[in-house]
């Protein structure tokens, strides 16, 4: 029995259909009002399990979710993000800088948990189904896992905020990640 056999060939029940749209509609990038309230272990387990149900080319599951709780690591990540945020702001035309100033990255420090998503584009070997013709399959699969994580987090209440102001190499060094990992 595969992990998806429960639904194979069956229509999705009305109750599940009715539950999905509100969760998708409510999914938002949290930036303000983030509280440092621990995510219950059971909720975190459900969120991660749901993320891992994402489709992966050739069942490769090229993603990992790195849970970052250490305050020192989070302070270092915040500093990296602020440096990139400021560099980006400096590159903008003056009319765009004002609106950009409202974008917050402080949740890196305010949230009870940071999740860094990595992707191993070579996982499963060279001959992974789908990889020969589409080199981005690992990135596409990882994006699906992130969406699952995001929706599950919203359904479990904590929610998710995304921070993309990072230099990938700096972040990988700060987190001591293997060089072949890509951060998504």
Helix/strand-derived category reads mainly alpha
Query: What is the annotated CATH architecture?
Result: 3-Layer(aba) Sandwich
Q: Give the total of beta strands.
A: 3
Specify Rg, calculated over alpha carbons.
18 Å
For the sheet with most strands, the description reads: 3 strands, antiparallel
| End-to-end distance | 31 Å
**Overall mean pLDDT:** 81
Spatial shape: globular
- Helical element count? 7
Low-confidence stretches: none
Layout: helices, strands, pairs:
Blueprint lengths: L13 H13 L14 H11 L11 E6 L2 H21 L2 H7 L6 H4 L3 E6 L17 H19 L12 H7 L7 E2 L1
Antiparallel strand pairs: 1-2, 2-3
Helix pairs in contact: 2-6
Please summarize what this structure is:
The protein is mainly α and 184 residues long. The chain is built from seven helices and three strands.
Brief descriptors of the model:
45% helix; 7 helices; NADH Oxidase; three-stranded antiparallel beta sheet; mainly alpha; 184 residues
Tell me what you see in this structure.
The chain has a three-stranded antiparallel sheet. Helix 2 runs antiparallel to helix 6 (137-155). It has a single domain, classed as NADH Oxidase, CATH 3.40.109.10. It is built from seven helices and three strands, in the order H-H-E-H-H-H-E-H-H-E. Helices cover 45% and strands 8% of the residues. The two termini are 31 Å apart. The model has no long low-confidence stretch (mean pLDDT 81). The chain has 184 residues and is mainly α.
């Amino acid at each position: 029995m595969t992990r998806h056999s429960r639904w194979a060939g069956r229509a999705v029940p009305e109750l599940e259909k009715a539950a999905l749209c509100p969760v998708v509609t409510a999914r938002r990038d949290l930036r303000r009002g983030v509280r440092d309230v621990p995510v219950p272990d059971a909720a975190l387990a459900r969120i991660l399990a749901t993320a891992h149900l994402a489709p992966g080319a050739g069942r490769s599951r090229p993603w990992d979710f790195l849970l970052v709780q250490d305050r020192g690591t989070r302070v270092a990540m915040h500093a990296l993000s602020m440096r990139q945020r400021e560099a980006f702001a400096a590159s903008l035309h003056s009319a765009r800088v004002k609106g950009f100033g409202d974008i917050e990255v402080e949740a890196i420090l305010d949230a009870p948990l940071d999740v860094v998503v990595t992707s191993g584009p070579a996982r499963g070997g060279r001959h992974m189904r789908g990889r020969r013709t589409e080199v981005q399959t690992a990135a596409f699969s990882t994006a699906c896992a992130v969406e699952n994580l995001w929706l599950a987090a919203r359904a479990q209440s904590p929610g998710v905020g995304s921070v993309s102001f990072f230099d990938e190499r700096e972040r990988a060094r700060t987190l001591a990640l293997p060089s072949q990992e890509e951060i998504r």
